[in-house]
Write a structure and sequence with these properties.
Elements (H helix, E strand, L loop, with lengths): L6 H4 L4 H10 L4 H5 L5 E4 L3 E2 L9 E16 L4 E9 L4 E7 L13 E11 L2 E5 L2 E4 L7 H5 L8 E4 L8 H12 L13 H6 L5 H9 L4 H31 L10 H9 L7 H14 L6 E6 L5 H13 L29 E5 L3 H15 L6 E5 L2 E5 L9 E3 L1 H9 L5 E4 L13 E7 L6 H9 L6 E6 L5 H7 L4 E5 L10 E4 L5 H13 L3 E5 L8 H4 L7 H12 L5 E4 L5 H12 L5 E4 L12 E6 L7 H8 L10 E4 L6 H12 L3 H11 L7 H5 L3 H7 L2 H17 L7 H7 L10
Parallel strand pairs: 2-3, 5-7, 10-17, 10-18, 11-15, 11-16, 12-15, 16-17, 19-24, 20-22, 20-23, 21-22, 23-24
Antiparallel strand pairs: 1-9, 3-4, 3-6, 4-5, 6-7, 6-8, 12-13, 13-14
Helix pairs in contact: 7-8, 8-24, 8-25, 9-11, 10-11, 15-25, 20-22
Bound molecules: adenosine-5'-diphosphate (ADP) and magnesium ion.
Magnesium ion binds next to helix 11.
Length: 734
């Protein structure tokens, strides 16, 4: 047995096991060891049914007396209902919205239920308990929990997957822990750090996580692994930062008064926050170290203006004549060295074609007076401004032509989607890269963009995604942070209402009034199409397609309605957005694709269906779509939930105006299992636990920064180096 041997070599496994391992990404014994319990059950919680008391968490074993599917609450909620008995008594268990559970148990089956005892009108019952088939009753604790671990006070419950049970995992772990393979483990965390933060060593932590003798051991182990995860993310980010900033870059130097005169052309005055963001960026651009900065600003805070002003600074700077004087050695340059033609280039990357188009249109407006070329590059086509035949307009051109002009430097501003980072796109003097909503682009993609021509451009990432500070410090650990924490003046605050179903018609009446005044509205639905009819009963969730039809027929027959969702082709989306922007359509029924940055100032109302299905921060992003004008904007939330908790969560939206506060709240309110860190940020549920803890995040960050400063090559930390190599941050920029 060794840590890298395949699981199937050491354990008897069948096809179903194998499929489950693939699904869970488990190959070796080492992987298995790092598959942690979701929870622990305390043996003292195992009760005879007769001893179950209301309000207590219990684990019950018994035989199924009966099991059936049923419906409750005016036959609206499907459920499974079972009675189990264990010789001392019997108790009912109910699973709301999970009627299928009834099919998984037969009369006489031995089952284990774990959950909270609730007092109902007809006696005690368990609501939505965890359920599994049990092979034996726990009378003989020795056989159930392994002979050596009789002292164990709590035992782990692993996340199960079809084909693999918590019990199987438990026994497998015990065998690995008891074998010699543990000797192979090398702790990647330095001893000093373990000592400083009182964290258990790797071996101890693995034992404590899989077979804790007391709850505090399990907690200490989890804390260690959480710290470890955040520490390694921080190290990765610090390494990227360090590597990036080693490279030479262009020095961009434009007088403040030039930028001021550019800003004067706008019909409004920049906010104080915009001014100071521009100032910090401009002072970064002057340096010979490449900027890596994050501009974080709530929706509507005016990030585009910051992007435009700093783009202006870049394209007004002439490239230096001799390439060898670029970058580091260029500090003492004087204007005599400057070339008379050509501009430094800016690449502005948007997450969607809709947005790329929108930025293209805005930038034409902002830069029209300079008679410079602006290019648009997306998966579905390319454009150039100005058109030769019609200088006031943009024209479609071939990709090949556009790329040629970009390469020979004739296009100083190139706007586009991720098509911008393909290897085929070569710039002459790429000096500044702006990435809108960068969390959709991984670090690796970002690096591909900057590697292209040996030198690296200054980098500005912009995001409106309100995320908690601890998360920002972690996932954006390689960037300097600038906040746009001030809204442009004159904006009315958006009115947000949670609407009870019976007031639906009143809401529609309000929307009609807005439409009558020539304003537009969004209706957001959680799904694109009706789920297939079999599952429909369980999921009463509005879909874009069906809702659009219903609104057209029954609610707003006089108005033009269109749909927008992620499954449409980019061209289709662009057309739909174009028509909406030009007021050809009055109502846009959409999924959350409109979440990111879409700007139609005339849209002043947003109706969100199934609001309970969205995170607070996401809802805040969505309502940001109607924060774009000086009209009073409304956000109406319909929720398919009556639970106090979900409604309370939504209520936060009606009072909090700040996306960052909402994201903190989201983090606080999310229970285990609802954390979507893995999918969104590449952070495990365990790591997300750490994200809730500012002290731990700061400690991990401080240690990572200190280590990178002292030993950037990680020569003194081979175990850490080994662990980092092969991760996505292992990119050499030199
Ligand atoms: P976001 O930060 O969400 O990207 P935008 O840059 O799209 O915001 O700006 C939102 C709207 O606010 C745009 O219509 C923009 O023209 C306008 N705007 C930006 N800055 C100001 C300002 N200082 N005063 C008034 N309006 C502004
Ligand atoms: Mg934007």
């Amino acid at each position: 047995m060794n840590l890298s041997s395949p699981i199937e070599k050491e354990f008897r496994v069948d096809k179903r096991h194998k499929a489950a391992f693939v699904r869970l990404g488990l190959t070796t014994l080492r992987d298995l060891l790092y598959y942690f319990p979701a929870r622990y059950h305390h043996i003292s919680n195992i009760k005879k049914i007769a001893h179950a008391r209301a309000g207590k968490e219990v684990i019950l074993y018994g035989r199924v007396v009966s099991a059936k599917m049923s419906k409750a609450y005016r036959k609206k909620i499907p459920l499974a209902e079972a009675i189990i008995e264990d010789g001392t008594g019997s108790i009912k268990a109910v699973w709301f919205h999970q009627a299928y559970i009834a099919k998984r148990m037969k009369k006489g089956d031995m089952v284990k239920l774990a959950g909270k005892v609730t007092e109902g009108s007809s006696g005690l019952y368990l609501a939505n308990p965890e359920f599994e088939h049990a092979k034996e009753l726990p009378m003989d604790i020795g056989t159930l929990f392994g002979k050596d671990t009789q002292e164990t006070l709590s035992y782990p419950v692993y996340p199960e997957s079809r084909g693999i049970t918590s019990r199987w995992l438990y026994h497998a772990m015990q065998r690995i822990l008891g074998s010699g393979v543990m000797e192979e483990l090398r702790d990647p965390l330095p001893k000093e750090i373990l000592k400083k933060y009182r964290l258990p060593t790797l071996r101890t932590a693995l034992v404590w996580v899989h077979a804790p003798r007391k709850e505090s051991d399990a907690l200490a182990a989890r804390k260690r692994f959480a710290f470890e995860e955040i520490f390694f993310i921080q190290l990765e980010r610090q390494r990227v930062r360090h590597a990036y900033r080693q490279n030479p870059t262009f020095v961009i130097d434009v007088e403040k008064k030039e930028i001021d005169s550019f800003l004067k052309r706008f019909p409004f005055k920049p906010t104080g926050a915009q001014e100071s963001a521009i100032t910090s960026i401009v002072s970064d651009l002057k340096k010979d170290t490449p900027m890596t900065r994050l501009l974080e600003g709530d929706v509507g805070s005016g990030k585009t203006l910051v992007a435009a002003a700093t783009t202006y600074a870049t394209i007004m700077t002439r490239p230096l004549k001799r390439p060898e004087t670029l970058g580091r050695s260029s500090q003492g340059d004087d204007s005599a060295q400057r070339q008379d033609f050509g501009n430094l280039q800016v690449a502005y990357m948007a997450p969607t074609e809709i947005l790329a188009n929108q930025h293209f249109e805005s930038f034409i407006e902002y830069f029209e007076h300079l008679s410079i070329n602006i290019g648009l590059l997306t998966g579905s086509g390319c454009k150039k401004f100005p058109s030769k035949v019609n200088p006031g307009k943009a024209t479609k051109i071939s990709r090949t032509q556009l790329l040629k002009w970009v390469e020979n430097g004739e296009i100083p501003i190139l706007i586009g989607t991720h098509a911008l980072i393909q290897k085929t796109v070569r710039f002459k003097y790429l000096a500044y890269v702006i990435i809108d909503e960068q969390h959709r682009f991984g670090i690796k993609q970002r690096m591909e963009l900057v590697q292209k021509d040996g030198k690296v451009p200054h980098l500005l990432s912009m995001t409106a995604t309100p995320i908690p500070r601890t998360l920002a410090l972690t996932i954006y650990g390689d960037l300097d942070l600038t906040l746009l924490d001030e809204m442009p003046a004159g904006r009315k605050e958006i009115i947000t209402e949670i609407v009870p179903v019976k007031k639906r018609e009143e809401v529609y009446e309000k929307v009609r009034k807005k439409l009558k005044n020539g304003q537009q509205a969004y209706v957001i639905c959680p799904r694109i199409e009706e789920p297939d009819p079999d599952k429909a009963s369980a999921l009463r969730v509005k879909s874009v397609k069906a809702e659009a039809e219903r609104l057209k027929e029954k609610v707003f027959p006089k108005y033009e309605i269109d749909v927008l969702h992620g499954k449409m082709k980019p061209k289709e989306k662009e057309d739909v957005m174009g028509e909406f922007a030009n007021r050809k359509t009055d109502i846009l029924v959409a999924t959350s694709v409109v979440e990111v940055g879409v700007n139609v100032p005339n849209a002043t109302t947003i109706v969100i269906e199934g609001a309970e299905r969205f995170g607070l921060a996401q809802l805040h992003q969505l309502r940001g779509r109607v924060l774009r004008s000086t009209h009073q904007a409304y956000c109406f939330l319909f929720a398919n939930t009556k639970t106090k908790q979900s409604l309370g969560r939504l209520k936060a939206l009606t009072t909090a105006k700040d996306g960052f506060k909402l994201s903190e709240l989201d983090l606080e309110l999310r229970g285990a299992g609802q954390l979507t860190g893995e999918k969104q940020w590449g952070i495990s549920d365990l790591g997300m636990e750490a994200i809730k803890n500012i002290k731990m995040v700061e400690a991990a960050r401080i240690e990572a920064i200190a280590m990178m400063e002292k030993d950037p090559g990680l020569k003194g930390h081979p175990a850490i180096k080994e662990r980092l190599s092969g991760t996505k941050a292992d990119i050499h920029l030199e």
